[in-house]
Amino acid sequence: MSPADALPRRTREVRLVARPRGLPRPDDFALVEAPLPAPRDGEIVVHNEWISLDPSQRIRMHEASTGYMPPFPLDRAPTGWAIGRVIASRAAGFEVGDAALHAMGWTEHAVVDTTMERPPARVEVDAETPARWYLGPLGWSALTSYVGLFDVAGLRDGDVVFVSGAAGGVGSLVVQLAKAAGHRVIGSVGSAAKAAYVREELGADEAFCYRDGPVGELLPAAAPDGIDVYFDNVGGDHLEAALEALRPHGRVALCGAISSYNATGAVPGIANLFNATGKGLTLRGFLARMYEHRMDDFRRDMRARLAAGTISYPETVVAGLERLPAGFIEMLSGGNVGKMIVRVRPEGERAA
Amino acid sequence: MSPADALPRRTREVRLVARPRGLPRPDDFALVEAPLPAPRDGEIVVHNEWISLDPSQRIRMHEASTGYMPPFPLDRAPTGWAIGRVIASRAAGFEVGDAALHAMGWTEHAVVDTTMERPPARVEVDAETPARWYLGPLGWSALTSYVGLFDVAGLRDGDVVFVSGAAGGVGSLVVQLAKAAGHRVIGSVGSAAKAAYVREELGADEAFCYRDGPVGELLPAAAPDGIDVYFDNVGGDHLEAALEALRPHGRVALCGAISSYNATGAVPGIANLFNATGKGLTLRGFLARMYEHRMDDFRRDMRARLAAGTISYPETVVAGLERLPAGFIEMLSGGNVGKMIVRVRPEGERAA
């Protein structure tokens, strides 16, 4: 434990100050200075280096988020994954200088209770393993791709795999994992440039831009013999198109529904779910946290793939906490390729 | 094999002569006399005693039946399960007098190819096992209830079970099987009389009539602590209400969607499927034929339950092939309790 008087008394955080209507706007957020309380027994203080931005955080900005995690309160920093260095510890298992992965979200410093339900984790950072990988290829978002494909969708030999949001943080890894396992992979994305990226860099057999026509026509054109697995990051018309294209005993991993996150009114429902009956389809929803028991296996496997160079993990880096809101809005507009992360204090911009 | 000249040359069948708009009308069907071809090698001739009526047959009366079994052709007898006596056989394994269960549907006599994809089955009929049970508690409809509950929904200790169409052919058995396994069971039905029946005769803990209010209010009132399994025979608002009421890791057996079968236009979609993600729900569609490998186990278990008197199998019997269309319409209007079957030629009405 370090002496309390060496700790900063104030920190900076990005707060949610208004519930967005549709696509969030910059003034739904505010960068504020806030007091940093002294740690109590069982707590650590972390100076964040990297913060994860995730589309699912948009869901929790609604006043109600039925069936999902509870809404974010107003005038507080949204929670979410972040990683930094321990600068004070009153908790067993953490020492000053340790890298700590935690869920306290959009703030420069966080006082983290190590006894909470989702406690912080001490992780190994070294020359081969940069800290930001714990938000990226070794993090929860990548675990989502991994268990969604292997555990939830139960990938089997010969499956044809369709992934929406294929250039995004979750989808880009799904494409590569499925290709590495020898599958035919079709991706959908939001621009022609992303489609090229998904084909050329990530190795997908087919990729289409969903803005080019009805997904119900683009998907069967890309997968004329149908699909067996659909990894759903989008919902809506993508899910309906997949339900038509799925072959008997097909499986859907219901991961996200970004098409509805910014909706301001009622969203059209899924009108053709009855396909599931006639074709014996399985649709399974999941959050990565439900598969926390797979984290060690997943990290071991991913480290090996990263070391072998068989996986690339695209990132879009937002430089500086003050740019977090703009980055979050960009992500929800489809502006990112790969996982979007915030570098809390860009190098060379050290505080005085 | 019996001499061909002893066989009837003509039979009677109920044909689909128009594609129903909404609830079928009597003149969508026609009872006609038709030539009965002589059996060829590999074929048997069956004189039907009982014909099964199933809500799913309505789906196949639409011009297109996306993702389900192919549409019924016009001016032919719809196919479906029936049982009768073999009156001629040119096939190994069948002798005159055998009871044969087959899929040739709405006809008095059927020439059945024993080499077809879904071949007829010779079944044992005796004093304890009336032929109609092979359309009822030992038949495909009951197999639907059985595997839907145990295999598809994966019933587990402590699960609270919700069943729609709880007084119907499939639902009435689901209620009893779940109660026999010690579960809390909630049923929804279409009338107060059926609700009383489901509670008092079938043993459900709660039953409500869905016409009494929004299902989204009636279900949580009947299951204030939520449900774990939903056996869906109805779709639509029932499925949406269940998605709200399901607890984490809940499971849905997608069996039927009778609420949409008579729809004449676009049906509102399922607007809250995203519940599946946050709660880790599994929705699995199925047809009984996908679980044919369970038939022997199922029949053994059901025979034991029937012998022990622990299961009752309600039936609504339609007297005479000529009344089949009226019975079918009645079933789709919710007029039946339990499984609806047609007695092809009522006793005492033997043909001259």
Structural class by SSE content of chain A: alpha/beta
- CATH homologous group name of the largest domain in chain A: Medium-chain alcohol dehydrogenases, catalytic domain
**Overall number of structural domains of chain A:** 2
Distance between the termini of chain A: 24 Å
Number of helices of chain A: 10
The quaternary organization reads as homodimer
Q: Greatest contact pair?
A: A-B, 39 and 38 residues
According to DSSP, the number of beta strands of chain A is 15
* Unreliable parts of chain A: none
Strand content of chain A: 25-35%
Explain what this protein looks like in three dimensions:
The structure is a homodimer of 352-residue chains. Chain A is of the alpha/beta class and 352 residues long. The first copy, chain A, has two domains: 163 residues, Medium-chain alcohol dehydrogenases, catalytic domain (Quinone Oxidoreductase, Chain A, domain 1, Alpha-Beta Complex), CATH 3.90.180.10; 150 residues, NAD(P)-binding Rossmann-like Domain (Rossmann fold, 3-Layer(aba) Sandwich), CATH 3.40.50. In chain A, 24% of the residues lie in helices and 25% in strands. The first copy, chain A, contains ten helices and 15 strands. In chain A, strands 3, 4, 5, 6, 7, 14 and 15 form a seven-stranded mixed beta sheet that branches. In chain A, strands 10-9-8-11-12-13 form a six-stranded parallel beta sheet, with helices on both faces. In chain A, helix 2 crosses helix 3 and helix 5 packs across helix 6. Chain A is globular, with a radius of gyration of 21 Å. The interface between A and B is large, with 39 and 38 residues.
